[in-house]
């Protein structure tokens, strides 16, 4: 485990020194307006990311043989620029193998992944539809898929995404879907739950997360919807006797879950289960965005009367934290 | 109670005679392409509506002294035109006072209104917020409001609306909101429930439903959102010590519940409770539309492989009934 | 071969009799405004479709045991209603097996399918890329695919679609793409040609054309883009050593060929070949629509100064036939 | 009255010293790229606003005990950065009570507020409709409303807004509306004039202008349309015998005056007076924006051939000053 | 002058006979559902248009040698079909030369054209800008232009258009523009007035109105904006010494007067005069549409509580007649 | 010919000195954050443009008497700021007449303009339509038009535009149009080719390119579509006996070539030739944008796996270079 984290640094006073391991998320040579060259880095670990600057480029204590994706050991002091904290780096070298743990270097879910995974498998266990149960247990017992599903972030943007993010999002959605499924008897509960588990499964191949979160070229050209459909179809075709109509419905759930053509779903939801999946996925994503903004406002020291920043997921709307404004929390 | 209903007529063979009381929903003088004059009526009762034609205008058994909104007694036989059933009317007279019951004449909810009302009051009873509890019990104990709330349809269009429709919609939404409120701890449950109960309360003055479902002129010029806000604000202002911030939040819930400016909400949802109210209101309306279309497809004899008609609430999309297609129901 | 075709009927004078085989495209029981019942049919053959009416329903010469999709033998006379020609049918019976040829009953391309197919295979033969050549020859030598590809219409709407329409459209596009590929050296010609051949291949499973042109339920829920991608991916996965990057590019060509998210492509064209495919597909479809409208205007007797009807494919725009207006043709 | 104004400073040469009272509109701690800390201020008075910088933070002549909304006395010299003038501040202290006049500190209308108010009351005096006359004189004789109406800016953005801006805008609109009302005899002139006077009255509670122009939280959640309707409705309900239909029309004028749902009006104009109000309000706002841009171009030294900057109120369009281009002014 | 007008016929009882001259606006051969052939005509005169039917096609009293655009003498009786009045025509012949006056045959302005023209010329006379004065007097003194300007309708649709409609619209706009020009001193009044007079002048060549109102093919391909610009440019180029900048401004006024690219203006208004021209043209068109709908509602017997029909010019909105609803008129 | 070009400078190491002639594209006085004044210039020549800074403003070797549009001789050294190369200028003076060639100072086509012009004239020579041939040879033999047509850029933005760009774009389009014209026999080839040659001819007056590429005020107010139509119409009107219908079609081709109202075409394409012109113009512009982005990615050292920057002409989409990704080039 690391000694010092980005989240700790943020609370440092200007001038306090630090010394620790970080993942290099970006590296760029720059010059100040007064022609002074420096190295601009973005360093991260599981608790966040921060800009760092190296001013003494010729100093022998500053390594040159590192790149984006490497883990480095950096020593320096906290500094402020335009009201934002930065790292002023005086010494820097590449970490040797085993010296630091990659799992400490990327943000990851605050939940226990084993618990989340257990919950997910519990939902599959509860199915009464044997075909859907077989499909899901086949897919989730594939070691490569299971590993990736437990690790994958839900999106690329660092501030919205973390290791285990996909699984965390799906489990929240499972609990919500279960509540709604029992409210509307018309819904085929197992089909809905299947859609929840598989809707974003293409993200395990669309994204890479070994050295920061990025789209693979294949991901950009095909997209996680197509990749998820292909993976699911391949599994179904390997099962004997999976009902063709059920196959069509499962694939339709994945294809249509973005709910609108302009959001990249080539088909609109045409069955009640697909309609509900799209609604709940959208609601849950928005509620998480709201919660994040409320947390951020508190971290930034905003008062209860102040609106949050503009929320991308809500068309740049600003929100008010009800409970704080009412003085309830 | 009536002897014969529109719903019965629809199953009549061509030529079968009928004799019963109906509400006149429309009345128009017309002529066939061959210059034969006739009277075209739309007659309705609680089970539906049907077109009727009077061919023998001079016949003394055909009254002339009736108008839209009157109850009439009509006798005639079932007839088909372009595959649709019609009423061929041979005798017609205005009903005398007490001869027929207006409550039989308009479609109304299949649920027990007293039960629905009791459920609604139970939710208010469960509040821990004393101000919101007082606001709602004050409004709902106003006899005029209570009567109208129990009677009002949720919309004007006859095929989507019925007496008690507003209450039925709200109670469905209450149960759904309760489930979702417990899933997201950030939500102020009593505020959300208050929004559910009050969001459409302006419809009790926007619409009239004595003689068919119509918008009042005031309703057209101001809208139920404004009317609901005004009614709520007036009640709040009559209560001593209602917290001003809470007043703002309650009014904001009503104002923003359509979720988009172009749907007539002058403000977008800016608190989590308003966001959830808009989502659930939208989902519940769509799920009811889907259920109605599935019922209609079955009534119309469509096969399990056939898509429904185009659903207005879903941008004219056609849907597939999952369970029927899979042979599950 | 049939003795009489819909196209001949259209030139009949009112009252001329006919006697021939037709495919039943629609069948509906109706009543006139004066309560006279009749059977309304839409009858078609390879040259077009026409409305027909049966007035003497009880006549023993009128069969009752036929339905949509059957071939019938009908006798009657030409009649006019609101300036449109109709068939007044006096006798009607189901055709016996072998009595009529289904290939006469649906509109089909005016081109020689064998020639078109030969041209298509010639393009594949000309490839220098061995992987793409192998992929296409594998797919096109599958008897089921080859049969369906030669038969499939390009769309459902009868007036825009005919047997062999898909193949005819693709061959036109191949010739156009070849000309454009040589104009822009940056283009990978074999990849572009592969895209042309495969872009609509999903239509062979999206549509059915045995008894009129219809979407299958699977086609409605998944769409021809997804179906074409799945078919192509399955074939590629069966080939040893197909380059993974090339696979991604081929699938991307199919996925993106509608050119806009709102037209059902889940990804926009991101390589030059996909961009060109989308442009040419769109241009060729529009030019065919224009040609059809010009032909229709001439058939309808419009003068050279008159604009065509509103063209659906061109946003309901009306066009002017340059050459006719200038008196050049 | 102040000795020196922001507007004077703008014409200073670099290096000229100043000494005067200003309102603190923003205050932020910053650091240069070279790690030099400074205090960044936005200082304003009735003639404009300007950025100021304090470099010698430890200097005892620089106060620390002031905040946004305070009036301060600042001494320093004019300085240029990136072609924009700034204030380099050497001494700074909070003003003592009575030392400076808040009315000098915010931009305010160039017109005489008493004259504007008199004109407004003259319009009310001229009404022939006794109910509307009573409504308006009741509202405008409320001391709190009258005071706020005379003070309120028309919008939050400093460069578009000033004290008395609402009143100035309304009086311009009154004169324009009078001209148009006499052109169209169909218009109810008193109703139109009532709409002009009340359409933005909700801004007196939506905005605060004591220490710069800001939206109140209530203003953000409810909006000035709703607030204006509520204030008007409350007044009407306090009058005996105000005609209900007239009440509906007056409220409709306020509700619909933004003219489009997407601009925040929950109802579109449905009476001629509302239609005209929306047109004239929009035209007058745009003409003021154009005039401001022309003035700004001259201030910035642009030539007659140069287009203005992009005008926000005209969808970022750039304009040409007709008279200057023609050499007429 | 004619003896009988369409407007008179509308008030006839069923069966009343008529005998008069009318312009043939449309002629079509049709058949009833029962196969009875008839001739369907649309006959018009200056007061309106009406459908007419000829049932006895073989009758020697029914001429066959007439076509669209001819004046005919028709005798018959009033008849009703689906609540609309029709003309049942028993005798019909082509009018001989001189027997009827074409000026009686098309709807035309209710104003005195000479007075309107005089007003228009008076505005030109009042100009202080000699170049604009010369431009306009040159154009308006061209006999062909003057004749066409006095005759042209403002649009093709019969119910919105009449002979002299262009001139009537322009004169209304002149009076309105004069009022607004004096309200905004920034405006170049002569340039604005020039724009009002010339903005729609291209309609004199875009439309034809000899035999009903139609677009010419050239009008459809080029549009009245381009045609008006070309006509104006040609005149300016024929004048010696017309200032080039003024030419650009005048042409820009015409080009941009539709105000939006999607309404067919290739340039948006970029000078204040063009901005105002677009606003006033739009307002005046909408006010006329509103007035027409109010008149139509009264003609159709609607009550004061009833909304008008859907107004095309106002995005299908329905309106309420303020004065009638209040009982003021 | 110049000794040193911007393109050479870009490859200089930091500190390398230069000495050469450049065109001043922009000149602005600025100050650093630390209050140090400097002169910021954008200097260009035919190979590109670069930012330059003058720090020693008082130095007698730095001229003050130059302005935008002048050619200057500048001496200094290469410098880096924020990873971008800049010119640090130590000496600077205005060039004397004849010392430098303006043709070296602006970017220009890499093609031989005489060859392009010859190709263009060859297309005109090949016409079979004598009227169109006469029109084009008349226009292109006008020395002023010919000179401007050979010089004009195709657009204002420096990175998309160069001297001779219009001609280069048209010749590429001519070759493409010829290929497509022979594919669709319905097309009038000479009319299509005429449209290609004239569609952007208004740019010769819309833009100025003597001292950088700018819109003239007249260009901004009228646009190149209108200017091209006017120039063409004037020429046609000077020819005796040019067929009026052909004139209308030629003007329509120019008017409609942007293809959509919102792109500034006041009429949509209504003839096949106009439809094709719009498609090919759009395709060719996009293919050039793609090629430019691919070149730029290589210049910037991006790897084959990296997407290009966001392409403005393709709605900010990023592209992948097929051949590079496949390792084919």
Task: Describe the secondary-structure layout.
The structure is a homohexamer of 329-residue chains.
Chain A: H1 6-9, E1 17-31, E2 37-45, E3 48-54, E4 71-81, E5 84-94, H2 113-125, H3 130-140, H4 143-151, H5 165-183, H6 189-198, H7 203-206, E6 207-208, E7 214-215, H8 217-238, H9 244-255, H10 272-299, H11 322-325
Parallel strand pairs in A: 3-5
Antiparallel strand pairs in A: 1-2, 1-4, 2-3, 4-5, 6-7
Main β-sheet of chain A, in a few words?
A: 5 strands, mixed, barrel
Query: In what range is the share of β-strand residues of chain A?
Result: 15-25%
Strand order of the largest sheet of chain A: 1-2-3-5-4
Oligomer: homohexamer
Low-confidence stretches of chain A: none
Distance between the termini of chain A: 34 Å
The dominant shape of chain A is globular
| Mean of pLDDT of chain A | 88
Structural category of chain A: alpha+beta
User: H/E series of chain A, N to C?
Assistant: HEEEEEHHHHHHEEHHHH
The share of residues in helices of chain A is 40-55%
